[in-house]
Every structure is written in structure tokens, then in C-alpha cells.
């Protein structure tokens, strides 16, 4: 993780859909940003602040992702705190939805004050991979 070597998007709101290498029973998500000491400006106001994580119910059977409508399910909302460790892990609420998913959407709702852009340095998705038997169940 090096200053400027991030996925940057314009403004303070943005989203990314991450395709996972396999279907996963999601348990947590980790977000990482650089430290204030590593920042050339001494600030990290481009760090994401309020973040929501969604999955698509239509994608639960292994099909194409259809995020963007009422088929989305919120698995968690959290705040990345720039005063804490640069790598922060947040639990997801998958207990109500015990399914494996192949995609996850990270929606950044705000940052720490940068009006021009927001940077995401690293996102890790945690969970248990679905077995081959699980991934073929429910498919035609």
C-alpha cells in the first residue's frame, strides 16, 4: 500500500462491485487506507468514511449479478475510522441470509472531507467458500 496507488473515484460517493473467485458465505469485510504518516500531505481526508455492503439475491444461485434494485440485500453499514488502525475489519450480517454469493458491492457514502476524490487502497472479503456440491444446488 503506497500513497497514490489506490482506486480513486471522483467526489465523496462511489461504488464498486467485486466479483469473487468462488461463491462465498460472507462473514466480514476489511478496508485499508494509508496512514497519516505515509501521506505526503500528512492528512488522509480521501479515506472512505461511511460504507455499506450489499449482495444480490439474484446472484445467490451463481447466476449473473443484478445489483441496483430491490433484489439487493444490505449486509452491513460501517464507518472507517481514520484515527484507528489503517486496516479495519467489519462483521457482515449474513446470519439472516445463509447463502453463498459470487459478487459483493461496496458503496462508499462519504469520505473524510476531500471534495475532489475518494481513495480505496485495499478491500478484503472474508468468508467460507461454498463446496462444489453447494454451488451446483438449485441450478438447472
UniProtKB/TrEMBL annotation:
One Pfam family, short name: Sad1_UNC
GO MF term set: protein-membrane adaptor activity
Keyword Flavoprotein annotated: no
Compartment annotation: Nucleus inner membrane
Chain ranges of the SUN domain: 1-130
GO cellular component: meiotic nuclear membrane microtubule tethering complex; nuclear inner membrane
Domain of life: Eukaryota
Keyword Transmembrane helix recorded: yes
InterPro entries, A to Z: Galactose-bd-like_sf, SUN1-5, SUN_dom
Matches recorded under Gene3D superfamilies: Galactose-binding domain-like
Primary localisation category: nucleus
This protein's UniProt keywords: Membrane, Transmembrane, Transmembrane helix
The protein's name in its UniProt record: SPAG4 protein
